[in-house]
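We emphasize that the prediction below concerns an isolated chain of 330 residues; any contacts that depend on oligomerization or on bound cofactors are therefore not represented. The input was used exactly as deposited, without trimming of termini.
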Amino acid sequence: GPVDGLRVHGAGNAPRVLRAAVFASCALRGEAMALPARVITTHTNFAPVAALGRRLAGVPYTVVAHGIDIHARLASSRARALCGADAVWAVSRWSRQRCLDRGVPESSIGIVGNTVDDARFSPGSRDRGLVARYGIAADEKVVLTVARLDPAERYKGYDRVVQALAALRDAVGPVRYLLVGSGDDRARVEQLAAECGVADSVTFCGFVPDDALAAHYRLADAFAMPSLAEGFGIVFLESMACGVPVLGGDRDGSADALADGELGLLVDPGETRAVAAGLAQLLRREGPRTWFEPDALRDACLRRHGRAAFAARVASLMSEPPCGVHACAG
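Result of the prediction step, given as a token string:
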């Protein structure tokens, strides 16, 4: 692999209801614990299992802290396991601060931003079949969001984009908003679009499989996720790898994904007018030239967030000694 001497073991593709049990079995089985130079790296939800592994076999563990997993209310066992980890890798500065708020010792926390599959996401022409499926007119500008439509994930800002559409249409002309993702929040968002008088501009694409995502990004003139509590936002990287300019919120981990505004436009996600003005700016192609040259945007994204940069960050943190065992603050 890209990190010499590092082997990664996963728990496979077990059904969701069985994943915790399968992971625990894989992590704690005797042969996995017996070998030297072994580290368990896990998500917050599985941190108690990793903590048990350390107690039983002395195997150190690292917790990767994303966003909602640490921002939301944590069960006491997860909170203790997070605080007691040998190391915590936050995906952004915002996530790092959430870890500090939880009582994780500052010395334990490193930052490892997410990466993107550059073989799957790349610039390309619009898929005519998708253009026909969604009825995209030749004169329409397309704004895209990829997000799970779940009440717990409204912080991703799709409401704000819907609320900004009327002003955006006034500013730039016909706009189509493609919302990729499924979930229980769809009916409410449909009602919101109707109340805002923009139902004819919003297309709910529903669930899109991974192998069709790149084609959907390529439909867009701009990608928008003006989130309030996003840990990082891999979707930003996927969009930029496809050469599509992005808009994010300036209050959360989006700032790391967008390199503090170097790779994309950051706006106040709590202000509808700011979102509308920001999207109008992108649709008018106003901003750094790199944002609007697909290959240049992709290259800039991969220099900072590509596999090589990610591997270097991981290798650097893996070379550091464990930070030790810490007591949980609560």
